[in-house]
Specification:
Number of domains: 2
Number of helices: 18
Order of helices and strands: HHHHHHHHHHHHHHHHHH
CATH architecture of the largest domain: Up-down Bundle
Oligomer: single chain
Distance between the termini: 10 Å
CATH superfamily of the largest domain: MFS general substrate transporter like domains
CATH class of the largest domain: Mainly Alpha
Helix content: over 70%
Length: 495
């Protein structure tokens, strides 16, 4: 069954460790998840520090400092889950945390941009092992009758990862050095690795092949697709590089499908997407993170430039978004069982899309008004995340729990990347068009460098662009959410 019908059908027996052991496992994997998801958001707060540092990165290099982690993470997360299924989910999770810590140390010690990018890539590799295997470990360590609630709690906490990154990252970066962010993350990741190594049980391994051909094609198709998405705002969506990346990606995806249909044990069987609820849950996760990371991308700059808040206060000011997630983590799975999968998601996407529209009208209003719209967006996340997590984890058998976690993580990261790209494109286009002809620059910092006396006009143009970007994100969320809800409704009726 799905969340709509009252139970989670994930085959497999959990180790008999009792509820206390299950709670320890749940807390451990939630901490690991918060670390890897929080870094995605925290790095955005450090961008002004990178730009002003002795590294002297250019505009394109700044973009890749942010996106190298996301690109590696998103492209390797499904193979990372498959590796956990094959070699051991607990071992893969511990290894991923160790690699994540090593990448953070390399980043902190980087003498130049190339070395820093290597550190970011290594950190992304570690994250690609952590997130899917956190789900795999949780599935196998929790009794079947309690898996739904555990997965729902994990889903809500994973939704808080970006908020934790904003708040925690803001507090750390208040020290004034971007390296501090990575020096704090590294020991936390190592401590979490030790906790998991000695505190949670092992689960059975799957004898399935890793499908090297399918893995290589999946990674290549994902890399080219995300390269096009990331380069779109910088080079223009009609540039040869971006169009070429999208065409090559489409070709690679087509070849991947053909290869996977012929393999006896595919990494990810394309026929799975014929399951309507699985397809709806994947698109739903994509849409949820499209809206959330589009907001995270804008929110810090809106609060810093538009309201004059410090980095620390900017991180704290997004707390209203977290309140519904914290409160709802315990109650949403039961609520979804009572009212149904489809109505819950319909309410969630309406709240997220409507909240984004509301925020676009409140950028110049007193902060309490802005905070109320953040609460509405948070209610949408609180409803969507547990339900989508349960549905995705329930779609595959327990011996593929890592792949299920990887699929969930991949849809999240692709949604996050596209959300940032689309919002960034709209912001830049409207900002540049709104600036006076005598002022030049595609960012607030660049425009202020050319005309420091026009501060108010430049910030006003930025706020106008941000409002347009929020409305765009809201419209996409509502439209795509409607498709998800209609698909889920048809699937539920057919079943």
């Amino acid at each position: 069954m799905s969340a709509a019908t009252g139970s989670v059908t994930v085959p497999g027996r959990a180790p008999a460790r009792g509820r206390r052991g299950e709670v320890v496992t749940l807390v451990a994997v939630c901490v690991a998840t918060t670390l890897v998801m929080g870094l995605v958001a925290a790095i955005n707060l450090a961008v002004p520090m990178f730009a002003a540092s002795a590294l002297h990165p250019g505009a394109s290099q700044l973009l890749w400092i942010v996106d190298a982690y996301v690109l590696t993470f998103a492209c390797l997360v499904i193979p990372g889950g498959a590796a956990g299924d094959r070699f051991g989910r607990k071992g893969a999770l511990v290894t991923g945390l160790a690699i994540f810590a090593a990448g953070a140390i390399l980043t902190a010690l980087a003498p130049g941009v190339p070395a820093l990018l290597v550190g970011r890539i290594v950190t992304g590799l570690g994250a690609a092992l952590v997130l899917p295997n956190a789900v795999g470990v949780l599935v196998h360590a929790t009794a079947p009758e309690r898996r739904g609630r555990a997965l729902g709690t994990w889903g809500a906490v994973s939704g808080l990862g970006g908020l934790s990154g904003n708040i925690g990252g803001g507090a750390i970066l208040a020290a004034g050095h971007w390296q501090a962010l990575f020096w704090v993350i590294a020991p936390l990741a190592l401590a979490c690795a030790l906790w998991i190594a000695f505190g949670i049980p092992r689960s059975d391994r799957s004898p399935r092949s890793l499908d090297p051909a399918g893995t290589a094609l999946l990674v290549a198709a994902s890399v080219t697709l995300l390269t096009g998405v990331i380069e779109g705002p910088e080079r223009g969506w009609g540039s040869r590089v971006v169009i070429g990346a999208f065409l090559l990606s489409a070709l690679l995806w087509a070849v991947w499908v053909l290869v996977e249909l012929r393999v006896r044990h595919p990494l990810l069987d394309p026929r799975l997407f014929r399951i309507p609820l699985l397809a709806a849950a994947c698109v739903g996760m994509f849409v949820t993170f499209f809206g959330s990371f589009g907001l995270f991308y804008l929110n810090a700059s809106l609060l810093e430039y538009g309201r004059g808040l410090s980095v620390l206060l900017t991180g704290v000011a997004i707390l209203p978004l977290a309140l519904p997630l914290v409160i709802g983590a315990r109650f949403v799975p039961a609520l979804a069982r009572r009212v149904g999968f489809t109505p819950t998601l319909a309410t969630a996407f309406t709240a997220i899309g409507g909240g984004l529209f509301g925020l676009s009208t409140a950028t110049s209003e007193p902060y309490p008004v802005y905070a109320l719209w953040l609460v509405l967006v948070g209610c949408g996340f609180a409803l969507a995340m547990p339900v989508l997590t349960i549905e995705l984890a329930s779609a595959l058998p327990a011996h593929q729990a890592g792949v299920a976690g990887g699929l969930q993580s991949a849809t999240r990261e692709f949604g996050s990347a596209l959300g940032v790209a689309v919002v960034g494109t709209v912001l830049t286009a409207v900002f540049s068009a709104t600036l006076p002809s005598a002022v030049h620059g595609h960012t607030v910092a660049a425009a202020l460098a050319t005309a420091p006396a026009r501060h108010a006009v430049i910030v006003g143009a930025f706020v106008t662009g941000a409002n347009a970007a929020l409305r765009t994100a809201g419209a996409v969320t509502l439209a795509a959410g409607l498709v998800v809800v209609l698909t889920a409704r048809r699937a539920t009726r057919a079943r």
